[in-house]
Amino acid sequence: MSVPEADIIQKVLQWTAYADEDLHLAQHGLKLASNAPYRLIAYHAQQCAEKYFKAYLVYHRIDFPYTHNIARLLELCPDRNSWDKDLDEAEELTPFAITTRYPGEDEPVSASEAKRAIKIAKLVRKTIRSALSNKGIKYKM
Hints:
The protein is built from 4 helices and no strands. It is mainly α. The longest helix is centred in the N-terminal third of the chain and has 25 residues, at 5-29. The relative contact order is 0.19.
């Protein structure tokens, strides 16, 4: 049985809303006067990008594995040829999903790395939103 189009669009909008919350939190973390949690900022930037890719996959009704591997998610995205090269650098975010969250696995994240992670997440957001908008998804600005 096919899922009605309205249900798919609603799920896509939920995924992107959650992604936007991750980006908002990451950006806010940079504003902390002292002790900015750069590892968590990078983690939330990674989560933003991951959720945008998953939203794109949801739109196309493509099942995806429970993974934080952005390269794997990129491989699953159809019609990505127009933006594939632009988002190659998104793969840099994958390690932040694990190495920033667990003691013993963590590696320090610098302010410049956290800022770069946000920059990449914003690029993913812009690119995927544009692709989804071209398919008829309407976003509130």
